Amino acid sequence: MRRALAGSSLIAALVVTAVGAAPAQEPYPTRPISIVVAFPPGGLADNTARPVASALERILKQPVAIINKASAAGAVGNQTVAISKPDGYTLLMALVSVSVLPEVDKLFGRPQNYTLAQLTGIARINADPSMLVVRADAPWKTLKDALNLQLAYDEGGQRLTATLMDYVLATAADAPRTFELRHLESPTPLNPLGAKGAGEGGIMPVHPLIAQAIEDALAPFGHPQIERVPVARADIHAIVRAARR
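The chain above was modelled as a monomer; its predicted structure follows.
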């Protein structure tokens, strides 16, 4: 039977049948529920789980406890739920890494702590869009400007380009007075959550996603693989020249 799982998301324990719980004629829940958070208190998963637990308590009329099991990038907490009794009383507030960790184990030939077949996604609780930002006083005004900038080093390891202060993240005070935010979703079919990336920051997805887009655009040149980021204009030219030889 499959256990309950939530990815950047949680578990609407209300959907009992998705958890493989008791027969429909039996009342649910009849005792306290645990929500396992696979990360430390105060993080994204924990801050998402606590208000959800509070809301579930009001709806289900049962205590809902948060249990933090933080270790191994979330694998310990994920495994705890995967091997628990599939009765709907042990739930998981997970991030997208819940889909990635078993594949990483498989990639490196390690025993898998759990598999996605042991978990059932119930609900997505939040969306965490990623944005590419620079300092307000930075010289880069377009995406192309930012992507073509890289830190360069000499043979002795001394940095030749701008200081790291140029890479300080923009703050709310740097944002324009008015702006429009649009969501464009393209869920992957490769996992129950449709999530891409890993961990709380989605493995910093902006550059990898851009690299994937460049690979798609360069498909006529032999389906090259981008092996480093950021991708500079010179890198693209080198790929095209190599394909034309």
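Strands lie at 3-5, 33-37, 64-68, 90-93, 119-121.
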